[in-house]
Amino acid sequence: MASKTLEYQNLSKEQIAVLEENFNKISKHPEGMTLMLIAAECGLTEEETLEWFKLRNAQWRQAEGLPAKLGSVLD
Prior knowledge:
By secondary structure, this protein is mainly alpha-helical. The protein has a single domain (7-64), classed as Homeodomain-like (Arc Repressor Mutant, subunit A, Orthogonal Bundle). 67% of the residues lie in helices and 0% in strands. It has five helices and no strands. It has helices at 4-7, 13-25, 32-42, 46-63, 71-74. α3 packs across α4 (46-63). The protein is globular, with a radius of gyration of 12 Å. It is found in: Nucleus. It holds the Pfam family Homeodomain. Residues 4-64 bind DNA. It comes from Takifugu rubripes (Japanese pufferfish). Keywords: Developmental protein, DNA-binding, Homeobox, Nucleus, Repressor, Transcription, Transcription regulation.
């Protein structure tokens, strides 16, 4: 389910599979220790992992017909 926006990170299929599994089963907004563990499992930095989750969340929200950012609703 990699979109062009997510493809720029040049992630392997295995990394994407781990990220997608965590996105769908654990949390769409991982923080702290969870983010650190996901990053370590994927061999990415926490910043790279957080960026992937931000992009993936925007993609998910668009697919659900929601605003790309929560703040858009409140503005």
